[in-house]
Amino acid sequence: MDDARRPAAPLAKAPPRQPAAGAGWREILRRRRSAALFLAGGLVALAFVLASGSLRPVQRELTQDDIDAAVLHTLANQSLPSRTAKAAESVRPAVVRVRGYVDDGGGELAEVATGSGVVIVDQGIILTNLHVVQGAEKVTVTFFDGLESEARVMNWQPENDLAVVKAATLPDDLAAATLGTTQRLKPGDEVVAVGFPFGIGPSVTAGVISGLNREFRSPEGDRVLTRLIQFDAAANPGSSGGPLVTMDGEVVGIVTAIFSPSDARTFVGIGFAVTIEAAGGAVGLPPF
Predict the structure, then answer these.
(1) DSSP codes joined into one string, 221-248
(2) What is the largest distance, in Å, between two alpha-carbon atoms of the chain?
(3) Four-way CATH pick for 90-283: 2.40.10.120, 3.30.70.790, 2.60.40.10, 3.20.20.100
(4) Residue 12: its pLDDT value, please?
(5) How many CB atoms lie within 10 A of CB 197?
(6) 181-233, pLDDT tens digit by residue?
(7) Assessment of whether the complete model's pTM goes beyond 0.90
(8) 267 vs 249: CA distance, rounded Å
């Protein structure tokens, strides 16, 4: 048979490709190397977290020694207000200057008396001494912020030289003093007096309680004042009607007189105040 007519021989299939020697091991090593790198990365991250945690400051509980040291440091480096200053500051916004006027005969008003007072009710109710306003045709009060207002006498108590006046015009946020009690007072207790001696003020003086339940008659007076507080904080003409205040900032008396053996009427160390119980009775405040 002619070669041209012979059927073509089928093409021979290529033998299956055999993996090169060692290729399987390389694949296994590659996979293990990837897993090892992943594990190493995780270990590095864990080490970083642990290291950063170890760098944080360790929180230590405060001890009493730490607190004491901090307090001592503050006291050594900062000036704190004195007890006297705090007591005076607590009452000073409630202290007023009181002035009395009469006609001078020519149609003009002349000042004839100056004293002090203390606001005891924030509606403008003020305690002062009767001798400051007695006989005055016009009474004015000057508040802590400088506001001056006319005032009228509402009540008086001659046996304790006390008067109650009410201001016609009030400043914003008028402060009233805190009233205390004399029941706990003892000779030697510290007190401050706040007022307008000789019209200067408000002025602050400090001292102690010298005695309790004292009596006093002024040289020109015809009435003996009783149950008075004796104190040695400086007081002078013009201080009358001002508050006597404890270190707690509580008003326990109203300054009313000084003992002065000379005609100069200056302070020699003995002042007297009407008790706040008597003063409260003049206003009708409970429980006095």
Answers:
(1) -SS-EEEEEEE-S---TT-TTPEEEETT
(2) 175
(3) 2.40.10.120
(4) 47
(5) 24
(6) 999 999 999 999 999 999 998 999 999 999 999 999 876 666 789 999 999 99
(7) no
(8) 24
276 sits in which H/E element:
helix 276-283
**Where does 48-182 show beta strands of DSSP type E?**
95-103, 109-121, 125-129, 138-142, 148-157, 162-167, 178-179
Asked if 270 and 258 touch (Cβ cutoff 8 Å), the reply is yes
Averaged over 13-26, what is the pLDDT?
51
Active site residues: 131, 161, 240
Q: Is the peptide bond before 202 cis (omega within 30 degrees of 0)?
A: yes
Q: Which residues pair with 190 in a beta bridge?
A: 208
pLDDT in tens, 46-67: 555 555 555 556 667 778 887 7
